[in-house]
Design goal:
By secondary structure, the chain is α/β, with parallel strands linked by helices. Among the domains are: about 40-95; about 135-215, DNA polymerase, domain 1 (Orthogonal Bundle). It has helices at about 1-25, 25-30, 30-40, 65-70, 165, 175-185, 205-210; strands at about 45-50, 55-60, 95, 115-120, 125-130, 140-145, 150, 155, 215. The strands form 3 sheets. A 4-stranded mixed beta sheet has the order 6-7-8-9, with no helix packed on it. Strands 2-1-3 form a 3-stranded mixed beta sheet, with helices on one face. Strands 4-5 form a two-stranded antiparallel sheet.
Length: about 220
């Protein structure tokens, strides 16, 4: 009798050990347990620019740029040749799809050696005949020699300013100034100063620093 009880106790003990191993180790160490969270995870990217449905796009963690573009639908005028469809996306990434550059109409260029005369608030004027900058006293108007002023009333015209002028804006460095010029080349002139927020790297806080320094008026 004691021998049978001893066997029963041994069986119970072995069963408890096997159950403990199964509960503590097998579920956490199995491939199915490790891969389940990964398969259900997704990333979110923001797509803007020359697309039909700009906005947030949900894609798989290993998704490529081409996967996001298929969801938003690029416009016919989108310059996809300048983008890499095989680029791997990251969570929180912003993708700006550029427009194709339109050819300038003939006769739209302005000769650099034309006469530029700027009248001051006191009636005085300063002229330039060699494409150099012409300034005025009291009017706050500076001409860059291309026929379009880069500053109006002390503000920088973001549609005509060059790299040096844009670099002077609060919160803008050489790299960000290059992005502004690239965006202006790909999308055309800015319609309003707030459009600067469409440039990669310029958010609401950065624009707030330069809002009082920029204009789009000629």
């Amino acid at each position: 009798m004691e021998r049978k009880l001893r066997y029963v106790w041994w069986f119970l003990l072995i069963g408890l050990v096997i159950l403990a191993i199964w509960r503590l180790f097998l579920p956490h160490g199995s491939n199915a347990y490790l891969q389940k969270p990964v398969s259900n995870r997704e990333i979110v990217v923001y797509v803007a620019g020359a697309v039909e449905h700009p906005g947030l796009v949900h894609v798989a963690p290993d998704a490529r740029l081409d996967d996001a573009l298929k969801q938003v639908g690029p416009l016919p005028e989108a310059n996809l040749e300048s983008m890499n469809p095989a680029e791997k996306l990251k969570d929180g990434q912003k993708v700006s799809v550029p427009y194709k550059s339109l050819p300038l109409p003939q006769g739209s260029t302005v000769a650099g050696n034309s006469m530029n005369v700027v009248s001051s608030g006191t009636g005085n004027s300063i002229g330039s005949t060699n494409g150099t900058s012409a300034g005025s006293v009291g009017a706050g108007l500076v001409n860059n020699g291309s026929g379009s002023p880069t500053m109006t009333g002390g503000k920088i015209n973001i549609n005509t300013a060059g790299l040096v002028e844009l670099d002077k804006l609060s919160g803008v460095g050489p790299a960000l100034a290059e992005r502004i010029l690239q965006y202006r080349t790909e999308h055309g002139p800015f319609v309003r100063p707030e459009d600067l927020e469409n440039v990669s790297g310029i958010g609401a806080k950065t624009f707030e620093k330069m809002a009082s320094q920029v204009t789009v008026s000629p």
